[in-house]
Each structure stands twice: as C-alpha cells, then as structure tokens.
Amino acid sequence: MAVVHSIPKTWDIFCKVVDNFGDAGVCWRLARILHREHGLPVRLWIDDLATLRALHPALDAAAQRQQVDGITVCRWQDATPLPDDAAVVVEAFGCGLPEAYVTAMAAGTRPPLWIVLEYLSAESWVDEHHGLSSPHPRLPLPRYFFFPGFTSATGGLLREAELQSRRAAFDAAVRQAFWRDMGLTDIAENTLAVSLFAYNDAPIAGLLAVMAQDAKPVLVAVPGDTLLPAVRSFFGVAADDCGPWRRGALEVRALPFLPQARYDELLWACDLNFVRGEDSFVRAQWAARPLVWQPYRQDDGAHQRKLQAYLNRYCAEQAPAASAALCEFWRCWNGAPKGLGAAWPALRAAQGEIRLHAGRWARDLASHADMAGQLVGFVANRVK
Ligand code: TRH
C-alpha cells in the first residue's frame, strides 16, 4: 500500500519587538493575510505579547500559546524546537531565529525555506536586492531576502483583499458614527480633521501653534499617549488633564490607542494624517488622504535618505506647486521646525491638489501585486 505523506505547509513567522509597534504590527498583518487569504496555517512567534495585544486586544498577553483569528500565537523561546510541519520560516527585520530551531533546520532532510523580511524603503537599490539569495554563513540552509517596496521589482506592500471595499463603505454616515464612538459629536462642517501619530521628538508645539492660527477649525485626534506630554505642555495643563484642549482655531482630542483595524478608520475619517515608521505610513497611503510621514530615526541618517527617496517617487507625478508645498512641509516636520509657520499655510493652500494626488497614488499602488501574495508566489517557486 502506498504511503501518503502529508505535505508540510505551516509558516513560522519570528518577530522580536525592538521598540514601538511596527515590528508586531507588520508581522501580525502578514500572518492574518497569509491565513485568511491564502488558507495557510501560520504560527507567529513573538517576544512581546503586550505590544501585540495593544494592536489586537482579544489576545492574552500572559499565554504561552494561543489561537487568535486562526493564527497560532506563541511566546518566543530561545529553545523553540523545529515543529515537524514547518515549511517556511519568515525572520522579520533581521531578528534572527532561535538557535535550537536553526540547528534542527540544518539537521533535517527538508529544511523550511528561510525568508528574511526586510524593512520598507523607496530607495532604488531595493529593486536589485529583492529576492536575492543570502546563504547562511555556516550552515547549508537556503535563505532569501524579501524586500517590500513601491515598484513592481520589489515585494510590494501589505494590502488585505477587502481593504478597498472596506474603505469605500466608509461613507459620511459611517464616518459620523466613527467620530461619535470616539466621543466627538460636534464637529463643524468646515473642520480640517487631522490624526497625529509621531515620535516624541517631532515638533509638536510648533505644529499646534501654526494650526491654532488657521483660518478654519482644525481638529487634531491623538491616538495613544506618547505625544500627550508635549500636547499638555503646549496648552500649559497638568499631567492628569485629559482634554479636550482648545486654542484659536485648534482643538486637540486624546484618543485611546486603537485596535489595528480601527486605526484604519481613523485614517479614513481624517483629511490629513501624520504617520510614522512603516505600517501606519503604508496604511495612510491606502487611506488615499494627504499624509505627513516621520520615518524612524536611525543614527547614520539613513532615515533622511529614505524620506527623500520616497518623496522623489511620491511627488514625481504631482503638480509642481503642490509637490513643493508637500516636500517643504515634510522637511520642516523632519528636522527644520522653524519653517512650519510658512509651510503650514502653503500646505493648506495646496490641499485640494494633494488630496487628488493621494487618491491617484493609492490607485497606482493598488495596481501592483500585494506583498503577502507575492511572498506566497516567491515561496511556491522555490519549494517544490
Ligand atoms: O510604532 P512604529 O514607530 O514602529 C516602528 C517602525 O516599524 C520602524 O520601522 C521600526 O524600526 C520600529 O518600529 C522598531 O510605527 P509603525 O510602523 O507605523 O507601527 C505602528 C503600528 O501601530 C501600526 O501597525 C499601526 C498601529 N496602530 C494601531 O493599531 N492603533 C493606533 O492607535 C495607532 C496610532 C497605531
């Protein structure tokens, strides 16, 4: 009688949270898409369940192993053994793999395919490096770089299949209901709604000061508590003051840190989104709304190169005046805060054109294959 071997196909994703939410945010999103849209069994090994829980509150931060939305979420352990069914292992952002797991991979006859998932960048060198093999220095293990990115030569961007329909269904009535849920019932018709997510070295006081001078009402929603000390200091209120805070045209509201899916809704509800790092940056692009990005600071200044490379792509097809206003504002936000006083009115004046462009940009990006789908295809071509 023929022996039928079941083909192993489980994906192991390894994630170490360096700081902030981006590492967990990207890995969780990838895990969910692989499972929901490609039917793959996925295990997410993560060393910081509390951070993941902020993104997905249904998670138990104390559990060693749990099943959430079809994903097996495991606490990272250095002694993690290699499960029999592992077919693909994704090492997120160069976090390394547990030594025991790697040793077992090398000893096995059919080691899982090892993918090193890299950070997102719009720099042109990414096109040449995406998909390159990266042999392990000591062990005979096949390993490949996978770079997300903005061109068809890269691995693309994470995008759920239902994202566009969810966004399209977010009409004026749903938007109003969203604001109501956030405790805001009285937003005037001509208000500029802004979401503010940034690192705490961003020039928050400078931004709030220019917004307070605006000719129209500006509502700034701040999710999470990172920026609240700077906001309170701008308004001169005590550390336990929860707002809302008002000055001139400006009103600032503190929001809780939202679950990942609700954060999308905040981006869709706003006219302008300040975002940072990697995942919120991508989501703001899918929101098809004007955005201002603060890249994650790196000691060697690599973040400034990333910023410029992105602006070069983003502004290439934009009307020159709008492009100049946007670039100047991003430059001020990322290191030249004295210029914000002039850059804000210029940004406001170009807002209509910048919004149209944001829609075109999102449509153009959506014409590229999404990252999870590309990753599945990449693996299928190598695992026979
Ligand atoms: O938190 P971040 O600054 O993460 C960063 C970057 O990923 C950076 O590249 C990396 O080196 C560093 O971490 C270690 O920003 P990012 O990438 O936007 O991740 C934030 C996540 O949090 C994203 O998934 C969106 C989510 N989020 C919510 O779910 N709710 C919220 O209310 C907010 C503000 C964000």
Describe this structure in words.
The protein is built from 15 helices and 13 strands. By secondary structure, it is an alpha/beta fold. The strands form two sheets. A seven-stranded mixed β-sheet has the order 3-4-2-1-5-6-7, covered by helices on one side. Strand 6, helix 4 (125-129) and strand 7 (143-146) form a beta-alpha-beta unit. The protein starts with 9 loop residues before the first strand and ends with a helix. The structure holds 2'-deoxy-thymidine-beta-L-rhamnose. 2'-deoxy-thymidine-beta-L-rhamnose is lined by residues 18-23, 25, 55, 119, 197, 223-224, 257-258, 260, 263, 276-281, 296. 2'-deoxy-thymidine-beta-L-rhamnose (TRH) is lined by residues 18-23, 25, 55, 119, 197, 223-224, 257-258, 260, 263, 276-281, 296.
